Amino acid sequence: MLDKNSRVNRGLVDEIMNKSMERGIYIDLGEASKLYNEIKQEQDEIYNNLIKEIPVEWQGINLNSVKQLHDLFTNYFHLDRYAKTKQNKTGYSYNAETLQQIYEKTGNMFSKYLINYRELGALLKKLEEITSFTDKDSRIHPQYTYGDTWRLTYKQPALSNVSDRIRGIIKAEKGYKIIKADYKAQEVYIMINYLGIDKLKRVFEEYNDFYTGMVRELLGVDLKPEYRNNIKTAWLAGVYGSKLDNLGSCDEEKKLIKNVKDKIENIKEIREFRESIKNEIDRGNRVITSYFNSSREIPSWETNVYRLYNIAFNNVFQITGSDILYFALENVYNLFKQMDLSFDDIHIYFTIHDEIVYYAKEDVIDTYLIDKIKNAMILDIKGWSRIQVKIDII
Q1: Structure pTM?
Q2: How many Å apart are CA 82 and CA 99, to the nearest integer?
Q3: Residue pair 183/329 in contact by the 8 Å Cβ criterion
């Protein structure tokens, strides 16, 4: 059983990751090429739609130039007022957030198309980056490091920000399968158990979906599936003190969102912990410590004190999540040894956020192994409820 005195074995984590990255991650280059062509075609179609929204004299615009975009939005669309940056009162920004605001407030389709065009361009660049690092066996061997919250991150190529659409090029070779094991609502789970919010701790064991159970426990009503995503937003807004501007598609949903946010804002444990974090920062303490005593300094570059409070508050749970992931790595590593499974039979492929990915021979995968992996990842933390782990085989 784990408790506050348990410590992560980072030496073992390094041993696992070094061996896994040496073996490498297989990339289906044929699938990558096919996907690249599909995305490029979509981007070309978006570009054609985008160009139709502006007159001929503007159609040579460099879409990556802030100056040229500002000229367009100022002199043709007359919408430059939306592009004022908060950090610099004399500067302008045409990032995704600004463009989305322009679209929502004015219906300007050029803004919408430009967002889509850039998103597809980012996917193309990521495909190019990943495939450029493949070796003669179509494998990549990323360098791993620990991020600001002790999460594993990768470079050459970067994998931490790979979208679901692109992850399909990470395949298993013939005779093997990929096993994806993902913690469900891990950040929320950690927050509730770390802070000891007893009325919500049992939700993780009694309900298949946290947000459904949370609404039932806090308000005594059933959550309609179509409201779930906005209730998730309401949870975050309540925890972090954010505003919710007219969120919801109908009066019933809007009322539910407001009630959920109000309930969360008044949870004593969250309110008191946020205040304690604020007091620590105000006293000059910039070191954030997890439940298991792993620590990191909060960013020195952040000057906005209110954002700093939120970063510090959030990082406590993020660092704790990293610890939990590494305890799980140790558990499954020992499990495979106990089951006399070799590295070639099954090994940890890589991790992304709250997910551990395994690479296994088809003939070793069965219900017994999957159940063992799931139980090894759930962990047994003193006083905590049990988290749910979702496993897929691809």
Answers
A1: 0.89
A2: 8
A3: no
More confident residue, 229 or 300: 229
Give the total residue count for the chain: 394
List 260's β-bridge partners, or say none. Answer: none
The domain limits of the chain are 1-27+146-197+293-394, 29-132, 198-266
**Other beta carbons within 10 Å of 222:** 9
90: its two tokens: 């004399």
Please enumerate in sequence order all residues whose Cβ is within 8 A of that of 227, keeping only pairs 6 or more positions apart, or say none: 248, 253, 256, 257
Q: Which of 358, 355, 352 is closest to 332 using CA atoms?
A: 358
User: Is there a cis peptide before residue 225, judged by omega within 30 degrees of 0?
Assistant: no
What are 218's two structure tokens? Answer: 């806090």
Contact 228, 246 (CB under 8 A): no
CATH 1.20.120 is held by the domain 29-132 = no
Asked if 124 and 36 count as a contact pair (C-beta separation under 8 A), the reply is yes
Long-range contacts of 91-97 (CB under 8 A, 24+ apart): 92/66, 93/66, 94/66, 94/69, 94/70
The residue written with tokens 């500067």 in the block is 91
Tens-digit pLDDT profile for residues 118-165: 999 999 999 999 999 999 999 999 999 999 899 999 999 998 778 889
| Proportion of the chain in helix, strand, coil states, percent, rounded to 5 | 55, 15, 30
Considering the domain delimited by 1-27+146-197+293-394, tell me its CATH architecture.
2-Layer Sandwich (3.30)
Q: Which residues of 158-182 are buried (b: 16+ CB within 10 A; e: fewer)?
A: ebbebeeebeebbbbeeebbbbbbb
For 13-59, the pLDDT digits (tens) are 999 999 999 999 999 999 999 999 999 999 999 999 999 999 999 88
Q: How far apart are CA 367 and CA 279, in angstroms?
A: 49
Q: Which residue has the tokens 């085989």?
A: 393
Comparing CA positions, the residue from 135, 130, 167, 147 lying closest to residue 23 is 135
Distance CA 261, CA 238 (A): 5
Could you tell me if 307 and 241 are in contact, meaning their C-beta atoms sit under 8 angstroms apart?
Answer: no
DSSP single-letter state for residue 94:
-
- Joined tokens for residue 353: 């956020």
Single-letter amino acid, residue 101: Q
CA 244 to chain centre: 21
